[in-house]
Design goal:
The protein starts with a helix and ends with a helix. The chain is an all-alpha fold. It has a domain of 54 residues. Helix 2 packs antiparallel against helix 3.
């Protein structure tokens, strides 16, 4: 069971890598950084799917546009200028 959880942990680390935050420490900045990393990771996946012919350019645009709105909304909620 422990080996399975280690494998799952390694797989998650590979699929969803996180970079350390080196900016000015404030809780809202840290949360926004996590949101920004999620955004960039998803955009990368969408671009790869579109490049590989799995989704259309229009679908890729729509998905990225939705992600952008979510990121923008998160920034407003955190009151980051």
């Amino acid at each position: 069971m422990n080996q399975e959880s280690d494998l799952l942990s390694e797989l998650c680390d590979f699929l969803y890598p996180r970079s350390s935050y080196y900016g000015q420490f404030q809780p809202e900045y840290l949360v926004f950084n996590a949101n920004l990393q999620f955004f960039s990771q998803r955009v990368s996946y969408i671009c790869n799917l579109q490049t590989g012919g799995k989704i259309s350019p229009e679908e890729a645009y729509k998905q990225i546009h939705i992600l952008w709105k979510q990121l923008k909304s998160a920034r407003k909620e955190l009151e980051i200028s």
